[in-house]
UniProtKB/TrEMBL annotation:
Residues 147-329 form the AAA+ ATPase domain. Gene3D superfamilies: 3.30.230.10, P-loop containing nucleotide triphosphate hydrolases (3.40.50.300). The lineage of its organism: Bacteria, Bacillati, Actinomycetota, Actinomycetes, Micrococcales. It comes from the Bacteria. This is ATP-binding protein. Keywords: ATP-binding, Nucleotide-binding. Pfam families: ChlI, Mg_chelatase, Mg_chelatase_C. It comes from Microbacterium capsulatum. GO terms for molecular function: ATP binding.
Amino acid sequence: MPPIQKRWHNSTLDLAIAVAALGTEGALDAASLARTVHLGELGLDGRLRPIAGVLPALHAAREAGFERVVVPVANEQEARLVPGLDVHAAASLAHVALLHGAEIDDPGDPEPIRLHDAPQAVEPVLDLSDVIGQDDAVAALVVAAAGGHHLLLSGPPGAGKTMLARRLTGILPDLDEDLALEAASIRSLAGEALTRLDRRPPFVAPHHSASIAALVGGGSRAARPGAIARAHGGLLFLDEAAEAPRAVLDSLRQPLESGAIEIHRSEFTVRFPARFQLVLATNPCPCGAFGVVGEECICPPAAIRRYAARLSGPIRDRLDIDVNLARVSAVDAMAQERGRTSTAEARARVVEARERAARRWSGTPWRLNAHVPGTWLRQGEHRLPAEARAPLDRALQRGSLTLRGYDRVLRLAWSAADLAGADRPALEHVGRALYLKKGIAA
């Protein structure tokens, strides 16, 4: 169910309060009022002003059994995204009163207040074949998309980290209706004007200087979702992640585990769904030249260590895939006009792999391998045979993997097997997963 604030601290219920007051005087049809939901801010001139959060509010109204709603003219398109409701768009309080049988003079046609926001932008689909000379990174991207895995891209400036991240959403399948409605509801609460239900996964890329409030969300009187919640169902991309404040990165830890973000204030508590794929991109050092052939790194060793430590151990442990990128050589740049894998080809493989996973996890709350608890993969019918687990067990035994990392490698192995069309992971899939997680050869 889409998120909705349990208490309203703004002007959303202005219209409802006004018609309730008129109804107590007997001027309006009580039966008509009782079966109608009213949403809207009331101006001093009697006109209705647009509000944020119409989509989740009307979804909740429909779930409560209401069939008729009244909203400001500016919110009409968004209100009609909720099926099964008789939507009435009103320009003024007088128009609402007439709807409920008031005996008043015709108010005429006052100029309705409309939104000044631009229509919903359609994000262009960037093709994966634009990426050349990074075949291993493209393959890791496909595995990440197939299982919903979190990803870290490390490499010098110009290696293609941002280019890869922006093409990940293109190979993700469309959202189903429920998830698309949840994602749209969060954008509605954030104040975005919605004109259609977008089935493409959202791509949210806050600047590395964004504050904790910008990521988590907040507000003094009404909660507004931050970047973490707005990425629900899609991708959250943090470029130059090592430049972000440590507290900002650590704020990602709880939603990465629970799939939700909670905002606590003295007057309210609100919980937003936040099930997203995280992609972090970082340079190897402050100057970006450490380990780059032909360039000289000017950073002291201590500065390089501090820079790497900005991505804390707990955050790195929650990332499924760690990809180290190098700049494309002149030979590769001149030899290839296009990459070997197109977005259409990769997306077809991802859709097929996700369908295999969905069939396997049918009857459970999960559909993606990245969401399955480790206990399910380490025990019972999904437990891998000893020969397939051998390199993974050795890595855990010598301390190069934590138990959380062990579980993440198992999830990666299932995704690799789904892409290969295998019924269950074999030694080669576990080895591939170990390499993607830690760069460990099986």
